[in-house]
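Memo to structure team: turn this sequence into structure tokens by end of day. - J.P.
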Amino acid sequence: MVTHIGLVGLGKMGNNMRSRLRKGGIEVTGYDPRPEVTDVPSLADLAAALPQEKRVVWVMVPAGEPTRGVLAELREILTEGDIVIEGGNSHYVEDQERAAEFAEKGVGYLDVGVSGGVWGLENGYGLMVGGSAADVEAVMPVFDALRPEGPREEGFVHAGGVGAGHYAKMVHNGIEYGLMQAYAEGYELLAAKSDLIDDVHGTVQAWSRGTVVRSWLLDLMVKALADDPKLAMLDDWVDDSGEGRWTVDEGIDLAVPLPVISAALFARFASRQEQSPAMKAVAALRQQFGGHAVKKAD
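Reply from structure team:
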């Protein structure tokens, strides 16, 4: 059983994970390009510091080229019997390609969807894992140290083969899009009815216990409104990190209707438009076919 791992990437998530693992009795050797947070100066030094009979390296860097670069370097370092864990929000198709490349050297590959954000250090991380049962079992002490307290099945799942962990996390994040959008629309409707609703924050807070819409996301909404009741300190520009798009793509490929998740994703696109060419076209058409009033551009 693994009790000492290497951890690549010591940003907000990685650094907190290192702390939680150490608190849970797992020895961690961390590597990050920033000298002020790293334990070792290079990936090669990280690998050399690990137990040589089975080296386990968890990669926790942003998806895309940063992850690809680290994994390419690790393929030159790790050897038969070692295990690499990819813990970023990568696309599951890439996991299957990478796993095949590592398998040529006899290196195991696990993909892990990690949920918990900046609160994970205190509350634990929800973990969704893809890969072989033998590799998962070998690394289980690490997963147990990271997951929330309580029954394992309420914070950890071996979802299936390689790619299943990131696929499950992709769907998780798609659901997250829909939930956040629903709470946001409810907030806007409450705020718009100012002639009747005197306490928007209090109304949302009252949903925190005993209601069917209570959740941790709702608790965070309550906290945000307590800090900034009209959200005046924020712009209405909302980014998306890719998982929502992948979720909608999967729905199209599998003919699974995803109206809520799709609408939530498109709402984020709309938030980033200073003007809407589509709505201008609608206004122009209404004017053309019906002579309807339009608002002239400034």
